[in-house]
User: Fold 3-oxoacyl-ACP synthase from Sporocytophaga myxococcoides.
Amino acid sequence: MKEVFITRVAKYLPNNPVSIDEMETYLGFINGKPSRAKKIVLRNNGIKTRYYALNKEGNITHNNAQLAAEAVRSLFDKSFKEDDIELLACGTSYPDQIMPSHAIMVHGYLGGRPLETYSPMGNCCSGMHALKIGYMSILSENTSNAVIVGSELCSPMLQAKNYEEEAKKIGEMDENPILAFEKDFLRWMLSDGSGAFLLEDKPAEKGLSLKIEWVDSISFANEVETCMYAASDKDENGNLISFKQMEPKAIADNSVMAMKQDVKLLDQNISQLAARALKGICKKRNFDVKEVSYVLPHLSSEFFRNKIAEELIKCNLDIPQEKWFTNLTSVGNIGAASVFVMVEEIINSGKLNIGDKLLLAVPESARFSYSYALLTVC
Assistant:
């Protein structure tokens, strides 16, 4: 089999960084009142600045496919152009439309020649699933290169206007209405942006490359109910009910299209299943975490940092936190794009040396799935 290398990396973070004090200027006030959950959530997640593809008037400046295309364009130069892409795989949590597929729309913005595209569905792991598609395509000699993208456009879904009908309904029943925490929680967690990799069957002629040793994913949906969801709702038994089964008025009245998260379920499972997933992968790959130079963990919140570290220690997988490379506090939680942006930042940080091993770690709380990849600097 051929070897596969990440030879170019790029990111695109739209507009100017948004401070925590500015967030409601962009997202708006539900029922005309400041969020009660905001301070609690921001204190725990540790995010100081983030990026929105919105202006202060609440208008979208880039759609999701455009964000992805901007990151891809940053990979191009005289020696690699649109027409040189052989495969395009794009992962995201919430595309601009249900159909056509996300990667098709990104291809439309990029132009160039006809090419093979893939749009893995999912949440945070979808970018890693796209990475595996490109990795396996080159390994199997289906293509000699692949462009892989992770992107997110969450901010429009978090704007107050999306909750107005539900807020009116709550207001009619309660003199002191407040949006359910599982909805308000995510308004202060998520950010916009994109990142892209160029994968090739040989290292770059200049600069550092990252050899992909393996990419593995595992789902625990057989054991745990849905935790993060959109375009659906949960019944009293934890079953997910699709918007297709609902009346249009019920969809608006209950903000069904908005993203929701069961915070208790998240806290009970996300850390211990992350350690369990990694333990299984280490056994499968005969890999010892002591070999890791840096781990790049996609943290949704700093709240989970120590919890994850404790679970890793319990499983004899201790990776000292001085080896953790994160950028959550400065760019926010960009979902499927987070790991791409972390790789771009560390490869340009001056920290890496030939032979260093990077462990990419991406948890996905939607129904608890995890993706890990091992890269070697060369």
Q: What stands out?
A: The chain is about 30% helix and 20% strand. The chain has two domains: 5-156+186-212, 213-220+263-377. The longest strand covers residues 210-219.
